[in-house]
Every structure is written in structure tokens, then in C-alpha cells.
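ok trying this again, last paste got cut off
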Amino acid sequence: NYFDESGGGVTFSGGEPLLQAAAVAELAQRCRTAGIHTALETAAHAPWETLNRLIRLMDLVFIDLKHIDSDAHRAFTGVPIDTILANIRRAAEASVELVVRIPVVPGVNASTDVQQRMFAFLAHETRAKRVQLLPFHRLGMTKYEGLGTDYAMSGTDNLSKTDCEPFAEIGRALGLAVRVGAEGS
């Protein structure tokens, strides 16, 4: 009933769905054949050919942009940013609805300078228009505790939508459609 009432759909997320690209492509093709809306949530750290194969099967694509500086991105995620930036550029040119998500994390990218550079990249170097700022929260902390793993952000305070609104204004001033929080939040 929920599927029928909401209009339904399938979202491929993770982990990282690009690591299972063949399976995602097969499932997405079946969804497309059945008329089911498809969405992909990805960090986009993969060869363009892999991402492109999947976005052609999607109605909606979310790509995370966590930092604009490659060294800082590598320090926090373990990978450089170059492939991700190139993939955002290309995905913004594709015939798919694209939303760039920026998780706003204190001590990582929650500064005016970093936010300005990320929004400038999106506004001046891509055709991306929709951006979601996702305020940091510690909701995953109990998962780490359950796994007996240290949670590096345990001393970091949650951010509110209000905390992120000044950053959103930076993007809006550059002509981007910026929303604070995920759809439906």
C-alpha cells in the first residue's frame, strides 16, 4: 500500500552502489522496464564509464561532495577528490536529474571558505543546479558502539538546519537551488 500511495521507487545506496555496478544495472533495468522510479546515491569515486552506465538507468542521482580540497578530502575519506569532481561535471551534463549533497561537518567543511569554494565549483564549473546541505548528526554513533569501534566524531555537536542556513545563502547567491536538509526532512 505504501508503495502504491507514495508513487513508489527504488533507491540504490550503500555503502557504495558503484562497487556493485553490474548488479545495480541489472536491477535498475528491471525497475525501468516495470515503470518503477529509480534513484542512485553515490560518492562518485569510480571510473566515469561505471557511473555513466548507471546514471543512464536512473531517474534521479545524488552525488556527495564532501570537500573541495583534494588533500583534505583524502584525509577525511581516504581518497582524492579529482575523480569525484570530474564525475560531478559529467553527471551534470547528462540527461538525469542531479542533486549534489554536501554533508556539513564541523572541523571538516563547515567553514565559510570551504563552502564558498564548493559552491563556486558547482556554479562556475558544472551545470549542477540543485544542492542539499545535510547538517552533521551523530545518529550513527550507536552503530559504532555496537561494533565496538571508536566513533571519531563522538565529541562533535550536531548541527541544525539553522546552523547551515548561512552556507545555503552562499550557494543561492551564486544561482543554485539550495535546500538545507534532505527531501522530506
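PB: full thing came through this time. The mean pLDDT is 93.
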